[in-house]
Amino acid sequence: MTIYNAPIDEMMFLFNNLKDNENYNEIEKFKDINSDLVKDILDQAAKMNQEIIHPLAQVGDENPCVYENGIVRSPPGYKEAYSKFINDGWTSLSCDPKYGGQGMPKTVSTFFEEMLSSASLSFKLYSELSIGAYNCILHHANEKIKDKFLPKIVEGKWSGTMCLTESQCGTDLGLIKTKASKQKDGSFLLTGQKIFITSGDHDLTENIIHLVLAKVPGGPAGTKGISLFLVPKFNVNDDGSVGTKNGVNTLSIESKMGIKGSPTCVLNFDNAKGFLIGEENKGLSSMFTMMNLERIIVGIQGLGIAETAYQNSLSYAKERKQGKSNNNKNNQTDEIIKHADIRRSLLSMKSIIEGQRSLAFWLSQQIDVSLNHSNEKIRKSAEELVSLITPVVKSFFTDMGTEITNEAIQIFGGYGYTKDQGIEQLFRDNRITPIYEGTNSVQAIDLVFRKVLNNKVLSNFISIIKKEIKEENGKPELEKFSKILGVSINHLEEFAKWLEEKNKNKKDDVSSACNDFLKVLGYVSLAYSWFKITKVSLDRLNENKNFYEEKVNTANYYFDKILPRVEAHYKSAKAGSDSIMKAKFN
Amino acid sequence: MTIYNAPIDEMMFLFNNLKDNENYNEIEKFKDINSDLVKDILDQAAKMNQEIIHPLAQVGDENPCVYENGIVRSPPGYKEAYSKFINDGWTSLSCDPKYGGQGMPKTVSTFFEEMLSSASLSFKLYSELSIGAYNCILHHANEKIKDKFLPKIVEGKWSGTMCLTESQCGTDLGLIKTKASKQKDGSFLLTGQKIFITSGDHDLTENIIHLVLAKVPGGPAGTKGISLFLVPKFNVNDDGSVGTKNGVNTLSIESKMGIKGSPTCVLNFDNAKGFLIGEENKGLSSMFTMMNLERIIVGIQGLGIAETAYQNSLSYAKERKQGKSNNNKNNQTDEIIKHADIRRSLLSMKSIIEGQRSLAFWLSQQIDVSLNHSNEKIRKSAEELVSLITPVVKSFFTDMGTEITNEAIQIFGGYGYTKDQGIEQLFRDNRITPIYEGTNSVQAIDLVFRKVLNNKVLSNFISIIKKEIKEENGKPELEKFSKILGVSINHLEEFAKWLEEKNKNKKDDVSSACNDFLKVLGYVSLAYSWFKITKVSLDRLNENKNFYEEKVNTANYYFDKILPRVEAHYKSAKAGSDSIMKAKFN
Questions:
Q1: Are A579 and B564 an interchain contact pair (Cβ–Cβ within 8 Å)?
Q2: What's domain A8-140's superfamily in CATH?
Q3: So which residues of A are the catalytic ones?
Q4: Is the ipTM of this complex over 0.90?
Q5: Which residues have a Cβ under 8 Å from the Cβ of B184 and sit 6 or more positions away?
Q6: To the nearest whole number, what is the mean pLDDT of chain B?
């Protein structure tokens, strides 16, 4: 089994030192969320995740969900753990107190999301979509529906799903075939089949609230004719109690490479009663409220799994003895952590993980501002930055999750390939994250075509970074970092300019460059994060030399060793798409 | 289930056009191995692999090997297939006719190795180590042992293993504890435990011949005191018949991430009777005969699995409809192969795979020269080139196998993560290849410290490439390729010079740069391969425009889009190891 210790010191370092968004600090309702409170929450969260949830990771892998006689059974121990999980209030962490939530900001709940991902992605997924459903209902449903459904979801007694995919449409939702016919009482009857529904059915909650995309006959073709419906597994009586079974049936669950403790369902809707959420034919944009926050959380999954992979390989590297390092003096076999190449591998993981956590913290502040600031203009501007960085966090973090879990296996050697150590499970569990909630390529296309081209939001982001560099102008210890970051920013700007230019008359050049652009923005965003970490660490060096010197050292590693990847991506993209479009693939 | 069609056209293209090693063409005994014969062999091999072996890939994954009452059972159908496999003579393909082999050159058998890897790695592993054992016995054992053991191994009735690893030593074989005590009759009794023994026990052959590293008490410490022994599962009578059971027992088999149809065994040697192979205390170098050829084959495994992944994603991309491409004219949903980004992904796979196959073909010629040329100096020189490129093929091909199977999953989206399509199995099966036969980092260290530093072999290789470029000087269609390849060669030379320099006083810089150097050499070697493919294709363009234009196009892709990675690796490595060695990893 893997080990996991929640990196509370790392999280508190960010909370104490990098809550640097002025607008965030102005949010009235978060003024009491102080360091002591957050530390206390993280301590409790760590206890829960380390002791109760993390042991379930391997259990779920070895005893996958079972589908029998139309019913889905979760792995052994999941029921008991889920019951404690909701009793301790973890589903309600970031929800509105009006519906029973604790009203914590994203700056705090994102740390919790990371811990939960580190502990067990399969277990996490049972409650994760509930928060997605919560957000979707909160922002788009009418008061009656909110009052009826939200308290139970917040409490965790009911869970939620997102039902988008059908066998003929994953990325291209315009092809949806599920139909919704309006009834006299204003409700709808839904008929169709949805696939790949995470937590589509299970035995942990007394009801499951499906948020379903479907087409109302007679509406516009394609994505403009999609509406969003709330369809409960069991109908809910007017008094809020659980009533008769609705027309939703589970046909099967998928046999998957990983996240085996999480049921991925084929759901059949057969005249299932549903309620319109938001306006008819505007379902996609309502669903995107859910999707966007969900995409960030998927990125955090990649980060969380990478953290567990790193902790385990570090621990193994400190114990496993093999060979003699260059600096061996006693002629005894060395622990492999003394070998330069193993250290390089560990630092690659560490520098990416810590940079990502810091970027996620920056993004969490922006989300909190976008949702809670009193000034609409400020909210709007934060929302734009969130929309820019969301696909980066989703794709970049999950791709790095693949890279890091892969490196972790390598450090374990043969022991990484066998099941005992649990390392290979991290590689398999993580592998879904670049796929679901929109494949990473879809994210890259979204980034470039919707958020970079003909849009000022990238320039806004770059201005923030440039301002940061400028403010530190003259500090000799930061000179190296300012200089390299400046060069990277130039690459990013040139790349964006190239995209704008190509978009005018050679769109295929742009389409085939999206993935590279996303990577470049990812690496540069992490460099920006490391720049700020370095600045703070240099300022505080004497308070805790051990901790802050290590930060500056890791920043050096990141700037020297990881950031050069930017140039290869840029150069590769700039070569254009001629050979790509000419290929015949016979 | 996956599809697989052996790429015979690609293989014949190489055999017909790139058998360009003059020394190879001088080898007397291969003069009759002509194009028709090879085509015939490949056709038969394709039939066997496609029809009999490939269907067993999924069977083995779903019905892993079973260990029960001390006995290992292979998956259903493996026995019957193996029986046909040896009856058709496939184990004997490259073996010496003296022992019943067919005496085919590596240029042919490597194609077969690739096909078998594409069809089912698990199935392949039952016979793969037999060839390793064959080579080791052939080169180091006395005539009596050769005559006794080789014919049965060549015939495939007996299989072979390599028993190196013990729980405390993988990479560092100096730590071996297995003991061998000399008996009066000249034989030895071996006692100890070996782990991770591929095909260590199974029910496909009537005997298993273990090649075991052990220490004779009183010998030198560390790797200098290791001897090599042949230890049969069943003792072999003087008449060659299988006799009593030897003291070798299977304690357990591993539960693994992939290659589940191949048993990975813990073997207990308890006074097992063995025979010294080669000289006492010189066992490691004898074992390396086996290891080196085996390492190349592991690289070929990565190539073979990548080919299957590519074929399946290509086929899926041609069928799956989703979204509209930039060039969509009819407003209908496009097959995803029309999307620029999907094409980019497919071309990345294709350009790497075809480049690798060509490099493997070049290497096969060198191996054939090193083993068979009449001139010792030429043999020696070829052997050096083989020793240089062996770690590259092992590590680079298997790492690319990870990259390519990963990309393939991504093209399948959600369907790539479920078990039905078989894509995720390729990702899991391939994942062992960067680990076994020496982890990829060990290969990189071997490459740099043994074959690049203080050694002229890299310069020899570079001279070959430079000569190739020079010969084509002036052909305008090749100008672009010459120029880019020239720049890459410069990077490679500078990098090597930097390593030499650093090795004098900053060894950690070298150690932490090995992986990057191996990657650079890998990418440059592939560029060299593509350069030669392009040259040939331009010459023959009018013979088959469809085929040769595609080659030139793919070369363009490789040079424009993949080769830029070289610079990032070089730059990252050159940044040195200060942050790496300073890190405290608290």
A1: no
A2: Acyl-CoA dehydrogenase/oxidase, N-terminal domain (1.10.540.10)
A3: 437
A4: yes
A5: none
A6: 96
